[in-house]
Amino acid sequence: MPGYVEVISPARVKGWAYDPRAQGPVTVRLIVNDAVIAECVADLPREDVGKALKSSGRHGFDISIDGKIAAADLPKLTVLSSSGDKWKPLKNIAAQAHKKKAYQDFDGSGSSNSRAKLAALQLHDLPRSDSDAPPLQGKSVLDIGCNEGYFCAEAVRQGASRVVGIDIQRASIDSARQRCPAATFVQGSWWDIPDEKFDCIFFLSAIHYEPEQRKLLRKLRDHLTPRGVLILECGVVVEGGVRAWRTIQRWDGVRRYPTRDLLVRDLLADFAVRPVGRSVDQAGDPIPRYVFHCTPYASIAMIVGARTLSGKSSLAFQLETRGVPTYSTDATIARLVMHADQGWRPLAQALRKRFPPNRAPNMAQVAIFIVENKLEEALCEIIATEAPGEAGLFCIQGDVLRHASIQDALKAKLATRNIRPWLVQPL
Predict the structure, then answer these.
(1) Could you tell me where the beta strands, DSSP code E, fall in 205-335?
(2) 243, 259 contact by CB (below 8 A)
(3) pTM, two decimal places
(4) What is the pLDDT of residues 45-65, one digit of tens each?
(5) Residues 121 and 97 occupy one common structural domain
(6) 278/403 same-domain check
(7) Is 36 helix (H, G, I), strand (E, B) or coil?
(8) Could you give the number of structural domains in the chain?
């Protein structure tokens, strides 16, 4: 009985089976440890098979096994076929292909210790709202240089909302699509990232192939969400205080590796970098690999909320003399009440009905009016728009910022602009 198993992965088994003596289609059965885990009729259209056999071509099968067996039991899987009499094993050409090219360690036969590398990435340290949830649950994930999709499959397993893998090798992408059909795979270079942003980007064991590493890392930053994390695993030369490249002979040629200080201070200058630790050693590695969690730098706003005459202006002056710009909410509110060119704003119109436009208003009274009339969002939209968010560090100070509801509204508005607020109050 002719037929082949063409794909075996943790998610699916695919191939075709045909018996020219039978009146109907062949039945296919999957067995692990003498137990039947799935069975189907091989009647999916296969035009290529039909042409070769001069038959109807409806001999294909594609069986989902996602979650039905453990990855460790995958080598024990047997695929049998029958047209009504005896069950006979189908030839497994998928296993032969994987033995020739497997790099990532899906089933214990790969040349890379992928499970140990996954542990070294310490995904449990990624920021998430629910500490009990899997680290990648609900996140969008990109893996550049994804190979056969091991880490994409892990992201899918953890419940990621979207998973994209990119690799230059066609064979790797074809295998990844078979192993992890729930993810999207793109054949191309890591410069061909889709025009979207991701919560997590994996860049593992590959950056030494890129001659313009700083430029590529900047591009990856632009594809991260404001709170996104680049998980970088790479070879690093540890020479304290040295910012330089080292040329190293590998099995596949001479490559450039950065010293640790060059990587953190220069190549990753656009990120806040948290060193995680050593990755796993691997055959062919001339130097040790390390893991880094890298988050795009965000501007920091010091929110100084205090009463009038408490020293806010003195603090602002000290900051200004040290090159830290300040934004005064007292001055903003005075403009809204007193300057005619602000009359187009609904908030200015509301304030002028309560406070005379011919003199500076009492800031404590303005704050109470804004809170009682739920005008916090309108005020904070102006503040967040006008504050110098392009500065790495700046100060927003004023009497109204003492109120919790205004602080909360300002925090939300700043977050949309990738600005992190720190609350500063006098003791």
Answers:
(1) 224-235, 245-250, 253-258, 271-278, 289-296, 299-305, 326-328
(2) yes
(3) 0.66
(4) 988 788 778 888 899 999 988
(5) no
(6) no
(7) strand
(8) 3
